[in-house]
Structures are given as structure tokens and as C-alpha cells.
Design brief:
Oligomer: single chain
Number of strands: 18
Structural class: alpha/beta
Number of helices: 17
Bound molecules: 3-methyl-2-oxobutanoic acid, zinc ion
Strand order of the largest sheet: 2-3-4-5-6-7-8-9
Strand content: 15-25%
Largest sheet: 8 strands, parallel, barrel
Length: about 525
């Protein structure tokens, strides 16, 4: 009999805390739908108290995404817990996830509090959360650097107050696999009631051990793993969902664990997250890297041609990496596009289908064949536009080796005003970026810029990714076009819109914290 491991996805919460990631509500909703298709058991949709935007995003996901449990994060603080409860209330199966640190380093320096106060806050938080929601998860933050006896006392309190899942975070990615397993085993000894709730693991990758530690936790008895697609998250990130899932899947006969994940959705989910966050996947990344199933040496190629299992422990089709045969051309109609999008998991109708069709025709005029990967890139690109953002109307760029490049742009501001700017830069991309700064009168500083191609071939779509900083807030944006200057300009304008939203959200959060000094900083 195999045992089921619950997959708790935190791409939209811990993952979204990665620097430069700024997902808009439409993007978050699309990701949550894809996570449901992937078959995750729990979607941690966000941290509702962080800002009104985060609250709305969690509430929309709770209303519209069916299947997984929808969790909202809350500090051990009444106002946060009430916000989280309200945000997840309409979910089919809501969960509140509340946390407070148990390590002395955090208690003394961050919370500036005492162990006794932490016990009191944990008790009050779990009791309050349970009065608002049946399903409550409690995390002793920085547990792996905390005193195990004190952490056990806090867990006993959380369980007595009704916590249904206990999560043990390796917040700073410090633990080693055997040490983490011993920590969990000791907690089981000190808190026998831990066997009556779900034990969960949440590991960060600062030493590259997040997946190994999570796996070690499962072997020690944990039956929930918190992880993120492509391993994104704070600093070095969280345990990568695809790696832990494929480890349990590939070695199922030896380990005896199953998950509810539809592994054939893994590659597509990974591409969607990479595209919407602007975080590339390293080519040699396990499971989803471009080279994860590529064989370079002659001996390996020869072996795989004779028998795949000579050098492959997994079949690429198991993770959804089969060569997709879906191809449309410029004569394909609206109906064919709708069917193709449906096959890719996007249900697009009405105005959204009209917009997608217009965009598809523009691309199909320039490219002979539009593949499944192109369609995915186009649909995710459409999701990026939203209200309260700058939009690019047009641009002119003069590029030459004999004169400095010059760009002129016209934009519409979030208030609906038309503005123009021009600039003579070091290169055409520099000129257009600075022309956008001139038009918007913003001092945005470029931090990262990347161009990739969506597929191979001379007529491939270009995908640009920009991270910039405005008033101390960094944010990213992406753009897709057959013209890389246009893709770059779109990416810059979107990054600017996202950064401005962050500046407003940070000001609101600072105001809230000034009004209530009891609030600890967000995780
Ligand atoms: O890493 C961490 O400790 C967290 C908690 C909020 C669970 O993300
Ligand atoms: Zn974390």
C-alpha cells in the first residue's frame, strides 16, 4: 500500500517573494488554475494582509479555483488572521496558515519579544484562526535554528488550540538532511499528538539541500511537502515541486509514496511560471531544464537510440515534454485557434478570444508556423495587460552604426493621458528605455534585461524580460513579439507599471505598520 504525500504549492506566496517578481491579479489567477490542473492539493494563494492587491488576488482565487485547498498566510496577529479568513472564505476548502518564530535569534532580534510572549501569541493566533476556519496550519518559523524543546512546547499549544497541520520551516535553508529528520523525530517524541495532525516540511535552498531535506522529512514521517514550481522563493528559493514530485514518482517502487500530481502538466506549468515571473530556468535544471533530457556525448546518444533506459531514468513524456505536434498557420481560423488553446488548457472565449485571434493573425503573418509554444507565449502575454498600467501606443527607433541611436515613444498613462518622450542612447534598446523614462518622467533604473527566443528558427518570437527599480522598489515585466525592440519596450513599460504599484503598496504597508507597531515585518 503506498502512502499519499500532500503537495502544498507556495509559488504564489513564498515564490512571489523573490526579488523582481510582481504578478498581477490576472496572472495569479491563471497560475492558480494551472496549479489546479497540475493536481496540487493545496495552493497557498498569497498573504492577504500584505496589501489590498494581495487580499483581492487571494479572494479571487478562492472564489474561482476549484479542487485544491486554498490557503492564505497570516502572521500570529488578530488583524492578519481576520484578513486571511475573509480572503479564503469563499473557497470550497479554505485554510488559514499562521506562523510565529520560535528561534531565539528571531525572538530577540526580530520580534524583540520573549519565549513566553511567543507561546501566548501562538495560542491566541491558532485559537482565533480556528474560530474562523476549520482548517488551520501553524508554522514555528526558523524552527531548525530553534531549541527543539521550546518549539515542541509551542507545537503542543498549537495542536491543543486546534491546528490541523503543523509545518516545520527550515526558513534560512540551514539544515542538513539527517539533522532535519532527527529534529522531526524528536518533535514526535516530545509531542505525541503530532501523530494526530499532518506534519509538513518547508525547506529553503540556501545550501542547495531543499529537496533533500524535504525528502528526509517525508522519510521521517511528514506527509505534506511545501514547494514551489521551478524552486522559486525567498533568496535561493524553496524546494522545487517538480523535483520532489518526480523523485517520489520515479522511485515509487522503492519508497511507496504517491502524490496527486498529473506529472504530464509539469513542463507546461514550469514554462508558465518562468514566463510570467521572468525567472529563467537554468538549462541543466533537473526535470524541467532544456537539457534535462538531452544527450550530448556520442556514447549516450547511441545508447538512448538503442534503448531509452540506457541513459534515461524518466521518460520525457511523463513530465509533458513530448514534441507537441500542434501547429497553426496564417489560414487557421478562430475556431482552430480556440480548439488549440483549449488543448493547451486555456479556455478563451468572447472578447479574450477576439484579442487572442488578432494577436495570432499578426504573428502568423510574420511567421510561417505558429506552434504550441508560441501560443502559450502569446496567451500569457495577453494576461499581462491590466488596468492602472502604462500602455505603449507606438515607438520609432533609428539605429545606425554612423549616428547615435534615437528613440521616440508615445504612451498612455494609468490616468488616460497621452505622453511622449524621446532620447538618444548608447544603443537602440537603451534609447527606447530612456525615452520611456522621459515620457513618464520616472527615474527608473534598469537592473536586468534579457532576450530569449520562444522556439528555435529564424522567425522565432522574441521574449524580453526586464527588472527595474523605482524609488527603492524593484519589479519585473515581460513582453513577446517578433520584433525584439518591441518586446523589450513592452517589457519595460510593464515593469514600470508593476514597480509603481509596488511603491504604492509599500507606502500603504508602512502606514499600516506605523499605525500598529505590534505588527512584525511580513515573511
Ligand atoms: O520560510 C518560512 O519560514 C516561511 C513561513 C512563513 C512558513 O515561509
Ligand atoms: Zn519560506
Amino acid at each position: 500500500m503506498s502512502e499519499r504525500v500532500i503537495i502544498f504549492d507556495t509559488t504564489l506566496r513564498d515564490g512571489e517573494q523573490s526579488p523582481g517578481i510582481s504578478l498581477n491579479p490576472g496572472e495569479k489567477l491563471e497560475i492558480a488554475h494551472q496549479l489546479a490542473r497540475l493536481g496540487v492539493d493545496v495552493v497557498e494563494a498569497g498573504f492577504p494582509a500584505a496589501s489590498p492587491g494581495d487580499f483581492e488576488a487571494v479572494r479571487t482565487i478562492a472564489r474561482e479555483v476549484h479542487g485544491p485547498v486554498i490557503a492564505g498566510l497570516a502572521r500570529a496577529h488578530a488583524a492578519d488572521i481576520e484578513r486571511a479568513a475573509e480572503a479564503v472564505r469563499e473557497a470550497d476548502r479554505p485554510r488559514i496558515h499562521t506562523f510565529i518564530s520560535t528561534s531565539d535569534i528571531h525572538i530577540e532580534h526580530q520580534l524583540q519579544s520573549t519565549r513566553e510572549d511567543v507561546k501566548g501569541s501562538a495560542r491566541a493566533a491558532v485559537a482565533h484562526a480556528r474560530s474562523l476556519c476549520e482548517d488551520v496550519e501553524f508554522s514555528p518559523m526558523d524552527a531548525t535554528r530553534a531549541d527543539v524543546e521550546f518549539t515542541a512546547e509551542v507545537l503542543q499549544i498549537a495542536i491543543d488550540e486546534g491546528a490541523t497541520t503543523i509545518n516545520i520551516p527550515d526558513t534560512v535553508g540551514y539544515a542538513m538532511p539527517d539533522e532535519y529528520a532527527r529534529f522531526l523525530t524528536r518533535l514526535y517524541e516530545l509531542v505525541p499528538k503530532l501523530r494526530d495532525v499532518v506534519l509538513s516540511v518547508h525547506c529553503h535552498d540556501d545550501l542547495g539541500l531543499a529537496v533533500a531535506n524535504s525528502f528526509s522529512g517525508v522519510q521521517a514521517g511528514a506527509r505534506q511537502v511545501e514547494c514551489a514550481i521551478n524552486g522559486i522563493g525567498e533568496r535561493a528559493g524553496n524546494a522545487s515541486l517538480e523535483e520532489i514530485v518526480m523523485l517520489l514518482h520515479t522511485r515509487a517502487a522503492d519508497l511507496g509514496f504517491t502524490t496527486g500530481i498529473n506529472t504530464r502538466e509539469i513542463a507546461r506549468t514550469s514554462r508558465m511560471i518562468s514566463r510570467l515571473t521572468g525567472y529563467p530556468v537554468q538549462p541543466n535544471k533537473a526535470i524541467v531544464g532544456r537539457n534535462a533530457f538531452a544527450h550530448e556525448s556520442g556514447i549516450h546518444q547511441d545508447g538512448v537510440l538503442k534503448e531509452r533506459s540506457t541513459y534515461e531514468i524518466m521518460d520525457a513524456t511523463t513530465v509533458g515534454l513530448d514534441a507537441n505536434s500542434l501547429v497553426l498557420g496564417k489560414h487557421s481560423g478562430r475556431h482552430a485557434l480556440r480548439e488549440a488553446l483549449q488543448e493547451l488548457g486555456f479556455s478563451v472565449d468572447g472578447q479574450a478570444l477576439n484579442t487572442a485571434f488578432k494577436r495570432f493573425k499578426e504573428i502568423a503573418d510574420k511567421k510561417k508556423q505558429v506552434s504550441a509554444m508560441d501560443l502559450e507565449a502569446l496567451v500569457t502575454d495577453e494576461l499581462r495587460d491590466e488596468l492602472r498600467a502604462y500602455t505603449l501606443s507606438w515607438f520609432d527607433v533609428e539605429a545606425s552604426t554612423r549616428r547615435p541611436p534615437h528613440a521616440t515613444v508615445e504612451l498612455v498613462t494609468p490616468d488616460g493621458q497621452t505622453v511622449r518622450g524621446d532620447f538618444t542612447g548608447d544603443g537602440p534598446v537603451d534609447a527606447i528605455f530612456r525615452a520611456i523614462n522621459a515620457a513618464t518622467r520616472r527615474e527608473a533604473r534598469l537592473r536586468e534585461f534579457r532576450i530569449d527566443s520562444v522556439t528555435g528558427g529564424q522567425d522565432a518570437l522574441g521574449e524580453a524580460s526586464v527588472v527595474l527599480e523605482v524609488a527603492g522598489q524593484s519589479a519585473g515585466g515581460q513582453g513577446v513579439s517578433t520584433d525584439i525592440i518591441e518586446a523589450a519596450a513592452q517589457a519595460y513599460v510593464r515593469a514600470l507599471s508593476n514597480a509603481e504599484r509596488r511603491v504604492v503598496a509599500a507606502a500603504e504597508a508602512a502606514e499600516a505598520e506605523a499605525a500598529d507597531p505590534q505588527l512584525t515585518p511580513a515573511p
